[in-house]
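In the previous chapter we treated chains in isolation. Here, by contrast, the input contains two separate entities that must be folded as one system, with a combined length of 1188 residues.
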Amino acid sequence: MPKITSLAQLHEIHQQYAPLLDSRTNGQGVEGGERLLLVCGGTGCHASRSEQLVADLQTLIAEHGLEGQVRASITGCFGFCEQGPIVEVFPDGVFYVQVKPEDAREIIEQHILNNRKVARLLYTNPATGEQIETQHDIPFYQRQKRVVLRHCGLINPEDMNEYLAAGGYLALGKVLAEMTPETVIQEIERSGLRGRGGAGFSTGRKWQFARTYESGEKFIICNADEGDPGAFMNRSVMEGDSHAVIEGMAIAGYAIGASQGYIYIRAEYPLAVRRLEIALDQAREHGLLGKNILGTGFDFDIDIRLGAGAFVCGEETALLNSVEGERGEPRSKPPFPAQRGLWQQPTIVNNVGTLANVPYIITHGADHFRTMGTETSKGTKVFALAGQVKNVGLVEVPMGTTLREIIYEIGGGVRNGEFKAVQTGGPSGGCIPSQFLDTPIDYESLRDIGSMMGSGGMIVMSDKDCMVNIAKFYLDFTVEESCGRCLPCRIGNKRMFEILNKITEGKGTDADLAELRDLAQVIVDTSLCGLGQTAPNPVLSTLEYFWDEYLAHVHDKRCPAGVCEQLLRYEIDPETCVGCTACARVCPVSCISGAVKKLHVIDQTRCVKCGACMEKCKFAAISKN
Amino acid sequence: MPDVQVTIDGHQVSVPANSTVLDAAKVAGIDIPELCAHDALKPIGACRMCLVEVEKQRVLHPACTFPVSEGMVVHTASDAVLGARRFVLQLLFSERNHFCMYCQTSGSCTLQDLAYEHGLTHWEFDRAFPKMPVDASRQFFVMDHNRCILCRRCIRACDELVGNRTLGLKNRGADTMVIADMDIPFGDSSCISCGTCMQMCPTGALMDRASAYMGATDEITRVPSRCSLCSVGCGVELIVRGNRVIRVEGDWDAEPNKGLICEVGRFGLLHERRQRVRKPLVKADGALADADWDDALQKAAEGLKSAESAVVVSGFSSTEAAQAAVNQLPGKKMALGGALVNGDNAPLSVLDETDLIIVADVDLTEGYNYRMASFPIKRSARHRGVRVILLDDEPNGLDAWARYKWSPDEAERAVELAQHAEMPVIVYDQHSAALAQELAAQLPKAKTIGFAPEGNTAGLAEVGISEPFANDGFSAYYVIAGEAAEVPQELMDALAKADFVAVQASYREPWEDVADVILPSPVMFEKDGSLVNTEGRSFELKAGVTTRRPSEVEVIERLGALL
């Protein structure tokens, strides 16, 4: 591929490739055009052997001599992970779910050869019981607005022509040929784009700071160190639309005056790393990275830096240290990275999601972007929906969508029991109770109810979840991931964890509860970085909204959700027990007494709550509560 | 940039724009407690002891890193601040073993002082009682992880100041631990025993073996003096208790070392194994025996008078002693350690400014000499990307810091690179003076630092003793040796052949076999006087302790009177 040397040439190439996507975007095939089977290559589907599925489909296509007429291709995450692996057939627009490699033959031989849809692979709406054929008719997608994920499930991330067909790099071309750095920054600022990594600082203003500092060298860093448990928004964008991230970085580089970028990505994302490497090579080959991009004199290149998987390295200053080869620990701010960052030079660290929004804003304009979202938070937000929700997956909604809409309309409701809380923002976020389900979510509203936007984790909890235990779980994570540099986070969180442990073991006191609250508040006030300052949020929010659960643990020595092992009581129902002695034999501490064919009794003072008896009992005579 | 106005606790001060709140507080005379901060180190804001309330800021900020800005209003003693400090201290005390009564640092401990200051009377949090190891694998000091508060001062000193980077961290969060190299015993590590980490430690985690439990802050006196054991002439503080020097520390305010000293300066004399000469010794029937001063001096005078004698003066003598030798003693005067090689020496501080250093056939990390000078070379290589070129055929302690290493025969390769440098510096000693001159002749921009042998060779030259020892067939010698241990073989051979030898020495070795008379000489802890270091700076030596023995000068004068 020769280098693209001007914006005009880029437009030409876009026109040339655009028909590639016609069948996918308007639902109509080109006359004599090929049929396409798009297979999800996202994280979850990949794990469910979707790569094998593509290979099998290709083998079958060859077997039936369909090459040139039918093609199977990988694409980015469809988001509907609950139902993966997903195959979408174009131009028919038929959406198959839970497809296994074994189903490949049926799809090819029935659907492709005989035009008979494979009914058993269609999505069934659990509410109505009817089968749904197309993606946009599935309730999961109806409330979504895919901006950041615009190319995921649409293009093949490893084929740059498809990105160019989708208008890729036209934003960069427009910026370089028609805009000054100042107007780029103004446009981004006017769009209202805020950092998608969680803190929500205005991206335009951040760029403006970096622009104003005089320096021989500046840097753009893409923060791809996604570390929240259960979160895979950034990963999906990088795996499904790597070029959008690269294009966003190049635009940012032009805006602030940087010629070098780094993508800091965790080594646990090998697929994302591979796709980024492919995309970087392609972009360089096309002359869209490197020297004199599109003949405008702008130089910009990007290198990948692998992180070793420390949560704290997602904090921008710890990330800088890690890129420099130092221990990944945060630096004191100020000075902020925009003033003194990587190797003490002005540096912008932007989240993957933020950067992926940038080309969209340039292409569609700030005014269009502003039509989405709330007064203070514009655009959309991707959430990784998980926990006790029926449709686990990746959802993108306009800011201002309510939690209820996400959980019930998109997520399909609570999976196991009644809704209790939803946790947003990862380990740094808070647990939001049901009274806030109708809160339109944006950066401010989430903060006001004691949580945060964070990078977009959203974990639903039901009445089977113990909130004290949940707080302990998150704190365990933070204690494990604390870098150890500043004292409140290093020791304070550990002390909090110990107190929570005491409470879940039924050894908590009122003094512990008071101390927990004090500790949490002071850690927020005194920690060095965002990790420490937000680590107590799960504790603070559960103390606030689920105080009664704490009291039940401390006063009644009872876990209302029946989760905390040490607070459980195993009891034998005298009506059901047949005296088979199985439980007494399996008990590791021999605390069950009773003669053959007589009622057995558990000595509560000696029981270690291991649950072995309950598992062993064939008559379901043993219950825990 | 113009100064900015800052209000701290109601005091308005004007400070340079690049100051931190801590700097400004110092100007305002307001004390803000600190644990991880140290004037010689870059602040990292880790310990959170110096948290202050800055108006219009959401959270408390550490004074050590927070930059001032115009009109900033700071509160250092508000309820929030004091509460946070007490909280930080409570947490610190809950982390590891901080039972002061068993700690050797009790009474000299920053952490303990702060606890008293903030009224900590009991533990608020449950203590974890982790079992932490004690690493006692080093000869001179011990690392007790139980007392460590992870402030990282030791690690930063080892890295930022000494450039050695032996100390580091392993694990993270509450499991964080200070380690040496890749977590090997401290004693087997790349540590060079300079002890800077120990001097930095604000608690009892790094403990000096020699002075452990020997005296807390209010039981000791600190006597600022100089180390006269090599020609760098580092500023030191002699830590004295009961007329005994228990420890030597670097003087943070002193040039050229700025608080750093080497293994020799810190531990050398306190761990010296040679036998001190405490009384005059006179050889009788082939063995040295105690004598009184009058007899010994008389014996020395007789021996020196009866033959053609020469005086050999070591660079361990003060300038005053050398002057007395010139004035009072007859015979030719020669310098024991060798000649002064350097003409116009640059100050050592150029090592922190240069962009290229050529180390000309000298190992600055071995033996008795100039070790302190390796620290700025190491830290420059480590932190400023300075290219270090070694011209040496032998293994050199700076190998790991050198960008290039060539044989001295290939000096032209170094010249080729150095020609393009802004300010190359050539470092050498008496053995490589010729090589250095050759290099300097081709590098007009170069600065040179030549190290004189021993501590005060430059001082000897000032009073006219500049000729190195040469065996000119004298039959009697008077050697003013001081602490000298490494003596040129040529001199020892000459002494062995001479008819009569009298030595004024601090230790019996290596003189007992060749000397007819040994007169006691003070060591540097016991001396008043002056010395001139290799940069040509004049320094004052101050005795940390008093002795009943006559001073160096007094002995020379009394002997002179008899000759």
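The longest helix of chain B spans residues 79-95. Chain B has four domains: 4-77, 126-267, 281-339+458-529+548-562, 348-451. Compare these points with the single-chain example from earlier in the chapter.
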